Amino acid sequence: MMPSGKIFDLGVQGDGLIREDERTVFISGTLPGEEVVYETDGGNRGTLREILTPSPERVAPECPFYGTCGGCVLQHASSSFYRSFKLKGLKSLFPADGTFPECDEPVFVPSGTRRRATFALVWNGPSRWFGFNRRRSSEVLSVDRCPLLVPELERLIPPLRRFLTDRKRLFGKRRGEGDVSVLWTETGADILITLPFEPDLGWREAAADFVLSSGAARLSWRFSERRPAEPLITARPPSLTVGDFRLIPPPGVFLQPSREGEAALQAKVREYVGKAKKITDLFCGAGTFTLALLEKGRKLSGLDNAPDALKALSAASAGRVKTEERDLFRVPVLPDELTGCDAVIFDPPRAGAKAQCEQLAFSGVPKIVAVSCNPVSFVRDAGILIGGGYRLTRLAPVDQFIYSPHMELAALFEK
User: Fold this and answer.
1) What is the reported pLDDT for 91?
2) DSSP of 49-76, one letter per residue?
3) For residue 166, what pLDDT is reported?
4) How far apart are CA 245 and CA 241, in angstroms?
């Protein structure tokens, strides 16, 4: 007989928690207060088998693949519960000594706005799989829609899957696992395929046909994430408007998941830097914030270890942004390099910016604006800056990782 019990809370990853003897069992797809029947394999993770007493906060998921696809974890929760869970999780990461400031009004980006997606691709000769990974699995789930995506990108899923899994193009005996990243731009889809072999002539010709027939802007290929991407065909340059500038992003460049989330973060960064004239943007990428701040009378510099992104930023700004290729994890900017700087922005990867913050903490820059996609590493970095004499005065949550346990934020530190 399978055990049953009552969910008493949700964990930080959105799984329901239930007591079983002296251990806690994690059960996805549940909500606090629900009586459930579940099954375990002897470990601390259970599988939901039946809901005996549903929560009043339970709603029907909007995606038919929810529960099988590994992308979302909270589609079964009401909007009010979902929002309170996100904010509660963010606040719980901060010390209970008043370090957490009063938040600005949080921004919750709606579904149907995500402009980029990464699909799993397994290529085993004539056998191929394209889609999203199944929950807690390396297996690929074939999907024909995703309501999180902008409609144009969602409509591209079926033809893209047919193109990549067409058995008529055997492509020899090639085998490998990779992914397909798609960014929806103002001129069409920018597609990047990552697989551990090189495309042959026939496949290159097929790629050209697909781009022209589907209306995509560009299709590129790379052997691995560490190898440069080769554009196989560019029907027209993929293009994005950032501030008052036109950006041609390099294949695979990091950009904010949605235009709505990007706009919300840009507005906060613009507000937090105020009237600063000399600004340094660390981990600047292709200039999401650099270009948005670039206006007459301002001097901006951007540093990153992504040469293609820096080249795109320089081109978009017509050379008005001073760029420098630099690994800020190994060679952080030192305090004396920031002399005369009015504000610093940093938007690092999920690992955060520990080494860089250790240097910023001893700088005399009056304003530091942090953007983070990982509140856990942000709290660590914030502690370093506060230990150096900075005050965390503003904080703005921006939820653009819809139905996930993740939260993005912008914050202002002042000295």
Assistant:
1) 86
2) EEEEE--TTB---S-TTBTTBSS-S-TT
3) 85
4) 6
d(CA 283, CA 285): 6
Q: Is 63 a catalytic residue?
A: no
376 membership: H or E segment, kind and range: helix 375-387
In whole angstroms, what is the distance from residue 398 CA to residue 90 CA?
A: 11
**DSSP tally for the chain: helices H, then strands E:** 8, 23
CB atoms within 10 A of CB 104: 18
Radius of gyration, CA atoms only, the chain: 23
Amino acid at 62: E
Cα 382 to chain centroid distance, Å, stands at: 21
Phi, psi of 361 (to 5 degrees): -60, -25
**C-alpha–C-alpha distance, residues 48 and 329, integer Å:** 42
Nearest residue to 286 via CA among 217, 334, 332, 238: 238
- Distance, CA of 326 to CA of 398 (rounded, Å): 28
Name the catalytic one among 63, 69, 341, 373.
373
Terminal alpha carbon distance of the chain: 62
Nearest CA among 53, 62, 13 for reference residue 33: 53
At residue 381, what are phi and psi to the nearest 5 degrees? -65, -40
pLDDT at 197: 87
* Strand, helix or coil for residue 119: strand
What CA–CA distance (Å, rounded) separates 80 from 224? 41
Contact criterion met (CB below 8 Å) for 82 and 74:
yes
Residue 15's pLDDT is 94
What is the tens place of the pLDDT at every residue in 41-63? 878 899 999 999 999 999 999 99
The arithmetic mean of pLDDT across residues 216-223, rounded, is: 96
Nearest partner of 268 among 86, 126, 400, judged by Cα: 400
- At 77-111, the pLDDT tens digits run 999 999 999 999 888 888 777 666 778 999 999 99
What's residue 171's pLDDT? 67
Element spanning 300, H or E: strand 299-304
pLDDT at 172 (0 to 100): 63
pTM reported for the whole predicted model: 0.93
Q: What's the CA gap between 332 and 348, in Å, rounded? A: 12
pLDDT for the residue 35: 96
Give which of 304, 301, 316 is closest to 248, Cα–Cα. 316
For residue 283, CA distances in Å to 84, 253, 411 come to 31, 12, 16
Q: Which residue has the tokens 């939820």?
A: 399
